[in-house]
Amino acid sequence: MKKKIIRTRFAPSPTGYLHIGGLRTALYSYALAKHSGGKFYLRIDDTDKKREVAGAREKIFEILKLFRISWDEKPVVQSERVKTGVYERAAMSLIRSGHAFYCNCPPRNVKESGVPKVLRDPCRNKNLSSGAIKLMVPEGKEIEFYDFVMDRKVSWNSSEVADTILLKSDGFPTYHLAVVVDDHEMGITHVIRGVEWLSSTPIHLLVYDYLGIEAPLIGHISSILDPSGGKLSKRKGNVAVEQFLEEGYLPEAIINFVILLGWSPKDNRELFTLEEFVEAFDIKGLQKSNPIFNKDKLDWFNGYYIRKKSDGELLHLLKPFVTNVFDESLMSRIIPLVKERLTKLSDFENLAGFFFAFRKPAPNLFGKNYKLHLQEALKVISQLEDFNLDSLNEGLMRAVKMNNFKTGDFFMDLRVAIAGSKITPPINESMVILGKEETVKRLKYALYEI
């Protein structure tokens, strides 16, 4: 028998930023299909026009391309399919078979994925001929399916499932109808989605059953938890992929971090490119426990991938993070000094901004002997004919030994005077880049102006 081709999809709604959990769903769905040579599709679930954000659809395309998550065929857009009448025909089929009914009740303030307080709608027995179309949920029916991620059967009694809107009075479907119709017509074999959609699954299974079509295999992945407790949310901090990119996290670092938020390889390996992840992907590696969003781990991945970049690549990547005039020659000299110290690209400004503009040092940053330290440093530097790293190193270390200075204290005061901070690239190399004249100027300011 010919093996069935795996077909998966990612179906985001253009209602704002792409959540880091959404990226994870896309990655797992992509890997599930591509690992076996299957197909991965993109669908835009945009039937909730009131919540749609202008430009969000294009941003989704842009981000997926940036992460090299490529889809097969043209993206399916639900709002465009509304015009074909495909959802209305499905809803009318359910009306005719007695599995749906018209409802004229005023809309309740309930999210589509939520459960209304009133499970049985008062309109279900009124035989209305117009209005929104709702699913007529039966009483006492056992609804069950096998969740291929949780690796167990999940069941509900239909008496606990609410009559749910399938087609709104404006002709637009809700998620509950559109997801069934579209997944069927797209030939989707496996659906990976967040566990928050588990409560909607009995509704979808009933619609599949009543339309006489086969449901795909469905798997619900765990929730990503905030370190402080509870589900990762915008209220608690960064959750948008765009925000992480704007902060200077590299796509390859984000991918590597996200794929391990709920999936683990057999050999406990940590470093993966997208291609390596696809090759290694195994459904059994999807974890049932909720992972914690460990930002320190993300920082580690990002630092690792930054250091894998060539200086030339970093020159290009850092350009958006330099607020001063971008001097390629100067940047080319600075990058080797800061490369090992960058956690994210946005750190560059704090770490190396003093090369572009003088930062007045705060008096409280200096040690108690800073004037003695800076006087000796100024004396050494002023007398250097060749202002290069070797002569600077030799001259300053001679001054430290002759005056019995503590080496760490001496160079810390130099850092503060030159960079206005205690955290800097190697300070002697930094002074060489700044040049003798600018270095002397900054030392004199620290000595005589503070």
CATH architecture of the domain at 363-448: Orthogonal Bundle
How much is the average pLDDT? 94
Q: Sheet with the most strands?
A: 3 strands, parallel
Q: Give, in spatial order, the strands making up the sheet with the most strands.
A: 1-2-3
CATH class value of the domain at 363-448: Mainly Alpha
Total strands: the figure is: 10
Tell me the radius of gyration.
30 Å
Percent of sequence in beta strands = 5-15%
Tally of helical segments: 18
What share of residues is helical? Answer: 40-55%
Alpha-carbon distance between the termini? 84 Å
* Uncertain parts: none
Order of helices and strands: EHEHEHHEEEEEHEHEHHHHHHHHHHHH
Shape: elongated
**SSE-based structural type:** mainly alpha
CATH fold-type name of the domain at 363-448: Arc Repressor Mutant, subunit A
Question: Would you write up a description of this structure?
Answer:
This protein has 450 residues and is mainly alpha-helical. Among the domains are: 311-355; 363-448, Orthogonal Bundle (Arc Repressor Mutant, subunit A), CATH 1.10.10. Helices cover 42% and strands 10% of the residues. It contains 18 helices and ten strands. A three-stranded parallel β-sheet has the order 1-2-3. A three-stranded antiparallel β-sheet has the order 4-5-8. The longest helix has 16 residues, at 20-35. The mean pLDDT is 94.
Key terms:
single chain, 3-stranded parallel beta sheet, Arc Repressor Mutant, subunit A, 42% helix, 3-stranded antiparallel beta sheet, mainly alpha
Strands, helices and their partners?
Blueprint: E1 7-10, H1 20-35, E2 39-44, H2 56-66, E3 76-77, H3 78-82, H4 86-96, E4 100-103, E5 132-135, E6 142-147, E7 152-157, E8 165-167, H5 175-185, E9 190-194, H6 201-211, E10 217-221, H7 241-246, H8 251-259, H9 274-280, H10 295-308, H11 311-318, H12 328-338, H13 347-352, H14 370-383, H15 389-402, H16 407-419, H17 427-434, H18 436-448
Parallel strand pairs: 1-2, 2-3, 9-10
Antiparallel strand pairs: 4-5, 5-8, 6-7
